[in-house]
């Protein structure tokens, strides 16, 4: 009989049961664990180390854009959240509310931040007076809470970790430039650091951020054919500036509202990375992000062999000094058990970005017929490039009938002449459709 | 008339009005700002950069101790918090409670973490089964909330940032070793990185952490003669292990409770650093922690001078490549205004630790007479080294009559024969007394 402890860890096959495989991998590789708090997970050390790698890489890019890190309260007075109408409508169903503090009922309830536009811009109004104070670029690494009904580790959890960048500018042009720069940083992070291909583009009015003028997202495709919105960058126009009275005196002495942006990337990135790269043996990690890049597992049969093997390992270790190397000396486990364990934890090196890109290309279909559209969404799913007239009613009907939503209008999309896939009216762009996480 | 914007920033003199000076410095140097949320502050970029410097330095030390970073939910179910009796009694008056989630009243209220022992050890019980799983060393960088009545930026705020380390061991000896190692890391951080002298020692039973067997703290002395508890490391014994059933099978197959420790350092460290080092001109920063170490302020009278000065600055910059240098090219401010601004922000280099140490030495008094004790606490305050018999009643009376509490029994204290400063009974150690923040 083999003790529980020494049993080879078992996970479902990715090809056979994708959902089960994902949960198995996340739990068995020690990336996360469930908690007694509904919808919240623990980021265990191996999972948190992946997040630290993303943080380090992205933080450098954010600082290069001229944004500086700060920290704002995690509690937001309810009345502040209500200032921007669309914003509060969008977030109201998802809020966690503190009503008791220090043993007493609070006069005004405090919302646990679902995002920090409102608390930040209340302060921006105080800090910004003249054109000299612009642009103001603030970034924050923090936890946020959104009360979610259906949760999945990393992909959608009640509490998650993210960075949120917030900027204020003198002109709309400058703000639009910032929206694009933030998205470029995300694209670079996903492609070069995480080896994850995706499509960047504009969200439709119904899918944009609550309170934004326009949103840009990076949409990735998961192996089950569903899309994952992997980061967003928003042109907030002057919507919040008007709600929070964020004004400045321009060089000519006129009082104007600022133009604002916000942009964020969350621990959801980890979910996408696990889903896309992993295989039947478990996790596969891009070398840049892997906490351990190479594992050395000593095998010997007697004590003389042991000392020879150890000498040899010390030599190897010197030669590998540029890599993150782990020597697995645990005496209580067999080499076979260790091979399985490290395979599950995704240590061996691979080239991954080309594969991710190929998968997206092979699963992106140009469709001109609604019946075909429906067949694809009932079958293999994936991205569909189809003409849409821009009418929210068509968008809504498509969602009802196929579960597919507009993911984005790719930044690379050119104007073409076509007919809406749903109503047949004139359309000018092919949008990207998919079922989303 | 000078525009508000160009007025030299004014702060109170440190020597004349210490409390006012502290608030002026924190606000005017752009370290923090008040918020619409009672008792919460914003860590503005210049203040947050100081915290980032501490994080980077301390994170390296923590990883060297073998602890790994992770992230646990910020919400704790009320029933978990109630498991350890002393712990819940200590923290109950300070809790913020979420009672509404997603628009509905929660069946069980969630406490916003004041510290994470309970949520973590619930998981430790699941993760630890055998001696092979020990030691388990987890660290977390996060925000915590304690509902405070009187707040002061950095020193005591309702929400603050910290790291909390939590370990589980097979033996008490190993746990005690960890308690000491964590404190040694804090001492090193304070002395070498922040140039802040202090005294490390054991807390009395009434001042220890709620639920701990014994606590060690680092006590610093502020310029107004009051003590600041600047970090703590706790021997939790088996108190939480019993409450949360954290057990393991030892090598002989016997089931035993683990021995635990926890230790933390918070953004309060910034408050101590500002208070101790600053002078009448504002902030003074230790070179290691200063976000900007050298500022170059160009002065010229015409455009020809301008190009000469700029060439010269470029030369200087090359020579200073090992330092964090800022060239202040802002055209709208005069050189004089800039000098004042950077002085306030504490940029010029100084040697600071010797001064901090001297201040502590000069303000630590050995006292054997209770009347003298009272005179000192009504006057210059500072640390008092006095015999105490160990009776909590004496400790309590001294607190009532002089506002001074036992800060710690210094680790370096030797056993001596003496009489309790309050009751005159036999005493074996000189404790450190002070009025505390």
Can you walk me through this structure?
Chains A, B: It comes from candidate division CPR3 bacterium 4484_211. Chains A, B: InterPro entries: aa-tRNA-synt_IIb, aa-tRNA-synth_II, aa-tRNA-synth_II/BPL/LPL, Anticodon-bd, Anticodon-bd_dom_sf, Pro-tRNA-ligase_IIa, Pro-tRNA-ligase_IIa_arc-type, Pro-tRNA_ligase_II_C. Chains A, B: Catalyzes the attachment of proline to tRNA(Pro) in a two-step reaction: proline is first activated by ATP to form Pro-AMP and then transferred to the acceptor end of tRNA(Pro). By secondary structure, chain A is an alpha+beta fold. Chain A folds into 3 domains: 21-277, Bira Bifunctional Protein, Domain 2 (BirA Bifunctional Protein, domain 2), CATH 3.30.930; 294-344, Anticodon-binding domain (Rossmann fold, 3-Layer(aba) Sandwich); 363-434, C-terminal domain of ProRS (Translation Initiation Factor IF3, 2-Layer Sandwich). Helices cover 34% and strands 26% of the residues of chain A. Chain A is built from 13 helices and 22 strands. Chain A has an 11-stranded mixed beta sheet, sandwiched between helices. Chains A and B meet through β2, α2, β3, β4 and β5 of A and β2, α2, β3, β4 and β5 of B.
